[in-house]
Amino acid sequence: MPVSRIRKKKSKKNKPKGVKVDIKTPSIKEVLTRVDERGLLPVRVLCGNLADLFFNISPDFLKEFENEVYNGLSDKIVYSIQTEYIRDVAQLNNQQQIVLYENFNQYLWSMTYALLVLFDKGVHAPRLNGEFSGAFADTPEVAEAWDLFQAALYLKKGYNREIFYHLPNPELNNGEEYILKANAVYLAALNFILLHEFGHQYYGHYSYFEPGDQAKQDEHLADDFAINKISGHFNSNNGKTLKAGILVGTLSLLFLRKTLGGGASHPNLDVRLKVIIEKLELEELDNLWGVAGLAISLWSNEFGHDVQIPPVGETYKELFYEILEDLPRFQ
Question: Which among 20, 64, 80, 313 could bridge 319 via Cys, Cβ 3.0 to 4.6 Å?
């Protein structure tokens, strides 16, 4: 994006004396109260963890956040509780508030758990054992993950609170391996989404609307902002989890629409996915290539598409790119 298109930002150096931005204890703010002030769905228990990761993503981020608060950004993240089907993923609204939606958050956690288990236990383990037949392994763990996947898909058209308490969920907190993995990857995914929205604030996208190619470039720019912030941790012990979060956060968007076209304001999702996954610095044999291929296959099945899924390949990376070549016709 040309610098001239970025709004002129107020500098903290020029901040009038006596003006104070107090964000020493940044937090998630639940602005809608129903049965439980924390939220209604199991994903509610991870709110505090989310704030910790978001505000500590890089050494300079808290200062950047403080400066954007001076530029009008709300110093609270709005946690919106909606007892209906998913209408929004997240947004930076015209009041300069970053808004998260609990129904999408539950969808995202459920998709995260389902994709991890379906790939690891339903595809990868049988493949290593030479037992993969093209269908998921028939085990109770895989069956439960499939049920959760279907429950997540239902949130696109309706709202059923109770079902999420009868399936794997973060409130169980029983040390189960894949619940713990899903919690960590979900938090990384939601932080990618939060940083994407903050990127729109940082570049001033809330203050104008650009149609067509410029709007799509703005979306790529917000993605780049988020990935650049997170990439400082790619070589840490938490790096693989953060990469998985960025990828799963992107893959979850697949199932919200039948087509991959982004319309007038967003890039086509297959293009966005390719750009993002290539910035994750994945190794040739990283299983995340396989998770991406699996998600596309499930999307194809959900909407009755005939995406060409190769039955076998040397690596998951090769399989992913072969599948990707067939996607432009679904835009």
Answer: 313
Residue 92's H or E segment, with its range, is: strand 90-92
Residue 136 · residue 118 · CB < 8 Å? yes
Contact 230, 57 (CB under 8 A): yes
**Is 74 within 8 Å of 97 (Cβ atoms)?**
yes
Q: With beta carbons less than 8 A apart as the criterion, state whether 160 and 154 touch.
A: yes
| Whether the predicted pLDDT of 28 surpasses 60 | no
**What percentage of the chain carries pLDDT values higher than 70?**
84
* Per-residue model confidence (pLDDT) at position 209: 60
SS3 content of the chain, % helix, strand, coil (to 5): 55, 5, 40
What residues have CB less than 8 Å from 153, skipping those under 6 apart? 255, 302
Q: Which residue has the higher pLDDT, 171 or 13?
A: 171
- Count CB neighbours of 206 within 10 A: 19
Q: Say whether pLDDT at 18 is over 50.
A: no
The pTM for the full model equals 0.89
What is the model's pLDDT at position 198?
Answer: 96
Nearest one of 119, 122, 125, 115 to 139, comparing CA atoms: 122
β-strand 90-92 against 98-101: which pairing, if any? antiparallel
Tokens of 92: 């930076």
Rounded Cα distance between 50 and 182, Å, is 13
Return mean pLDDT, the chain. Answer: 86
Would you call 117 helix, strand, or coil by DSSP? helix
> What is the C-alpha separation between 38 and 40, in angstroms, rounded?
7
Beta strands across the sheet bearing 27-30: 27-30, 76-80, 98-101, 90-92
Cβ neighbours around 211 below 10 Å, total? 9
At residue 195, the pLDDT reads 97
Q: Are 39 and 103 in contact (CB under 8 A)?
A: no
Closest C-alpha to 321, from 281, 270, 253: 270
Tell me the residue length of the chain: 331
